[in-house]
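Researcher: Structure prediction, please.
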Amino acid sequence: MKTNFITAFLTLVTLLGYAQSPASYVNPIIGTNEMGHTYPGATVPFGMVQLSPETDTIQYSVGQGYVKDVYRYCAGYQYSDKTIVGFSHTHFSGTGHSDLGDFLMMPTTGKVQLNPGTATHPESGYRSRFSHDTEVAKTGYYSVMLSDYNIKAELTTSSRVGFHRYTFPESDQANIILDMVAGIYNYDGKVVWSSIRVENDTLVTGYRQTQGWARERSMYFAMVFSKPIRNYGCRDEAKLAYSDFYRKFNTTKDFPEMSGRKLKTYFSFDTKAGEQILVKFALSPVSTEGALKNLQAEIPGWNFDQVRQQAENDWNKELSRITIEASDEKKIIFYTAMYHAFLSPTLYMDVDGMYRGLDHNNHKATGFENYTTFSLWDTYRALHPLFTLVQQKRTSDMINSMLAHQQQSVHHILPVWSHHANDNWCMIGYHAVSVIADAYMKGITGFDPAKALNACIASATYAPNDGIGDYMKYGYVPADKSSNAASKTLEYAYDDYCISQMAAKMGKADIAAGYAKRAEAYNYTWDAGTGFMRARKSDGTFQSPFDPLSTERQGFIEGNAWNYSLYVPQDPLKLIALHGGNKKFIAHLDSLFNVKLDEKHFAESEDITAAGLIGNYVHGNEPSHHVPYLYVFAGAPWKTQERIHQIVNTMYRNATDGLCGNDDCGQMSAWYVFSSIGFYPVCPGSNEYVIGSPSVEKATFNFENGKQFTVKATNLNDKNIYIQRILLNGKPLNGYILKHEDIMNGGMLELVMGAKAKK
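Model: Predicted structure follows.
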């Protein structure tokens, strides 16, 4: 009989009383300032509702192009701000571009104001000042005192329902504002249409359609108040050329149908001192009926504290998939990283299985849960490989979601960046291929392998997309025909390797051979004369002038030639040979970390602060995340061990600016989870992990198959960062490669640490 370790662990925590659960170490405030772009609000793991405060209403554009300050508000919240505008129900975690911020709600007292006002004069609108001294952020819970109104706001959630509890002062004009215009990365005209129905004195339903990062997005809601509405009203700030025959009514006050492109609404009550008004707010991608079903299924009652406790229990269950022994400070950073890693992808379907498909028809997920928010250029590297270990059922569901996307796509390809029944086509590569092949190679079942391989090939051969046609014609992406050509060539080659691996395992030798050949496309970008990868034009010559420290106009994206020249994860030994062998390659890696990136070239780096750099190594962006582990392949594992500790100790901190770059839907955090335990998936799809150097004393994986795998770091301390011996289940492990099957079979990896590098 298999032991459910997670259930047993949580039971033990409850019985003993004094043991701290993993959720108690999570600090949602980490990464909420400047570059991390995370948010501190309430959600459950992979929840559709991600309920969090917004601290300003900076517009993406005010008619004169992009407003740079909006970038700070990718997640809606900035720790340094002094006011809160309201609480909205959908967010991205750590992205470098944004959308969402649906259905902003704000409790107020006094005269109804339907504009947010300004940060310098919050009294000019419905926003309020607040202090971090009154702010509480935990797993599944957020609260704050809105000082301008003396209202305590508390938030918790289930997967599909946001639950608000507002404690009001005595007032004959207590209001709850529902702003249907507010959003993240907003601009005039982003809301295509919104509509609200007041069904009775406690139930309100509605929807809105937006056009933003997702070109065509609809979200529906059902909202229930714990107290009957006294009166309500709205204002539509849009100027319409056509005036319909609703003009016979006063639609601005106590009229149960409210619609418009710039609709702002309010609901008013009388309150006694200390009276609480609770609001349940359910979402659906399909219909208001679906939202009602979600509400009734997930939060049928009004016990806020019970829902809050369930949210914390949900987090404890997921975070306990890995248990660690470490200092409290490291536990905070580790479990916050796991928390960030489990925020997305997000559930995108109703309790009855209905969801909005990429074709904008309604579909029913049969045999799987449908997910969205696939930031694949970021997350194929470490986040999805982490899921193949500790979220195997969800991995299967996510792959089925990708396959449904491919079937519904008019292009018939897998998602590039999936987002609420849309593909926003952000970034390069066809990295859904990597996720699917990696899962298949690691024995994850529950999806059709033949259908999956065909979908991978469809994505890899869709000529109109991002230079793929030229890639197939020339063997590389020509710089005079496509931007970011060198990066695309390198990333397409890696994805092609993944297809070859999957096809080979399925016994399809011809397909495997063809894609193995395509996987060597990196050779076209290698310039032996400079020792760097370079963008090549269609006539066969390299693009010039060439500056290996520059990112702009060099054929690369979110990384310069120094970093991308090390991106051949499918064949690191060949990469080393191109550089002239181990000694020269090690020197090249050393120079990457030691060279100083001047201000001119740093200014071209995207999405990072100076804290994200070690010399010219860019940890704040994803293309270099595997680079510290390349020393192992060149015979210098002690240098990997040094760099891993340097990165772990300096670029992940328990602070608002504790992330050195965008968390990017969990990729930055997944890197930390792997690396602090002691190994990393340098090449997803290979079934191999490269051993680095642990920074926690012990980590135990509690798998869905009932088995456990423990990594124990014997003699680990601040000085003992070098591996002296490696034992797998008590037997010496030769080399620094760990097989996936050795992990999943259960057992122990012991890393004996010391203060001197073992060369």
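Model: The first strand starts at residue 42 and ends at 43.
Researcher: Thanks, that helps.
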